From TrEMBL:
Keywords: Coiled coil. It comes from the Bacteria. Residues 41-68 form a coiled coil. It holds the Pfam family DUF892. This is Uncharacterized protein.
């Protein structure tokens, strides 16, 4: 493993680990508030568990490279995740904003894992099966969230049409 490729791979590991913390913060805030959308709550709860596993897989690779998560990146990404979740909470169409953001975020994570796998390969790291598992989980979640955009939008409108609070 060349020093430059190793350094880039380690940066990618730190970034992806912090990104998964941001995901946990966002999903955790949403799950706390969901009442009218149990179909979304169910997939978010499952993906929270998957995300914790993804962070563990990243930590295992970091450990093999004598690295640990970046406290600074973790703090920043955790803060950003909380701010993003709070920012949507004041919108009258919070659930719609969350759905759009969740779909975009899952696709961002897919790209992050694809990039991380290339970094690992080019750095000479041979065991990328854990990253492939994480990528597959993100692809499945992106599909599930994407599939819920239309039904949740319809439900949001129907609840609002009845004069009830459809916010979350």
């Amino acid at each position: 493993m060349t020093d430059a490729a190793r350094d880039i791979f380690i940066t990618g590991l730190h970034n992806t680990h912090a990104l998964e913390l941001q995901a946990l913060q966002i999903m955790g805030r949403q799950v706390e508030r969901l009442e009218n959308y149990p179909e979304l709550e169910q997939i978010l709860r499952r993906h929270i568990q998957e995300t914790e596993g993804q962070r563990q897989r990243l930590e295992e690779v970091m450990g093999r490279l004598s690295e640990s998560p970046s406290a600074v990146k973790e703090a920043v990404q955790g803060f950003v995740g909380n701010v993003a979740a709070i920012a949507h909470s004041v919108a009258s169409d919070e659930i719609i904003k969350n759905m759009l953001a969740n779909h975009a975020f899952e696709n961002y994570e897919i790209a992050a894992y694809k990039s991380l796998m290339v970094m690992g390969e080019m750095a000479g790291f041979s065991n990328l099966t854990g990253f492939k598992q994480s990528l597959d989980e993100e692809v499945a979640m992106a599909r599930q969230v994407g599939d819920l955009v239309e039904p949740i939008t319809r439900k949001f409108i129907e609840i609002g049409a009845r004069g009830e609070s459809a916010k979350i």
